Amino acid sequence: MSDFLSLVTEKLGVDAGTAQAATGGLMSALKDKLPSGDFSELTSKIPDLAGLAEAGAESSSGGGLLGGLTGAASSLMGGGSGAGGLLGTLVGSGLDAGKVGPFIQTFIGFVKDKAGDGLVDKLKSSLPDLGKLLD
Questions:
Q1: 104, 27 in Cβ contact below 8 A?
Q2: Which domain covers residue 71, as residue numbers?
Q3: Count of the separate structural domains present in the chain
Q4: In angstroms, rounded to a whole number, what is the distance separating the alpha carbons of residues 118 and 133?
Q5: What pLDDT is stored for residue 4 in this prediction?
Q6: How far apart are CA 55 and CA 25, in angstroms?
Q7: Rounded CA separation 55/61 (Å)
Q8: Which pLDDT score, from 0 to 100, does residue 70 have?
Q9: What is the value of pTM for the model shown?
Q10: What residues contact 115, with CB distance under 8 A and at least 6 apart?
């Protein structure tokens, strides 16, 4: 298990499968929203996250039961884009809605520790809806 997944399971008290699905969903959203150079910078500085992005893209693209549930939750939470879409993706992965803010905070803190403030600023500017989920 990657360092980030271990941190999420410990800090938020979720199982490894939920942590992996939520991280994959977030990474898939970042891959879609970030300029490719910024996403490459993120995955080069934190290589464990690259594989999670691919897994997240597969599960949210409609393949299998998880893809269907993720899509349904995303639709219920406001569609496929913006804060509602990301919230739906995270909740559809099995993450409790009350843990979405702490999950995002944990992710941002982890990226800051591993890759620095500059990359965190790029993440926030490319995906400004992240801030809406921190409350």
A1: no
A2: 3-133
A3: 1
A4: 21
A5: 93
A6: 8
A7: 10
A8: 43
A9: 0.79
A10: 41, 42, 45, 46
Q: How far is CA 30 from CA 10, 36, 69, in A?
A: 23, 10, 20
Residue with the two structure tokens 């569609």: 79
d(CA 33, CA 75): 19
Distance in angstroms (rounded) separating the CA atoms of residues 133 and 135: 6
Q: Are 38 and 44 in contact (CB under 8 A)?
A: no
Q: How far is CA 26 from CA 14, 19, 82, 83, in A?
A: 16, 11, 12, 11
How many residues appear in the chain? 135
pLDDT of residue 65: 42
Q: Which two tokens stand for residue 50?
A: 């690259």
**Measured distance CA(42)–CA(56) in Å, rounded:** 16
- Classify 78 as helix, strand or coil: coil
Six token digits for residue 65:
């039961």
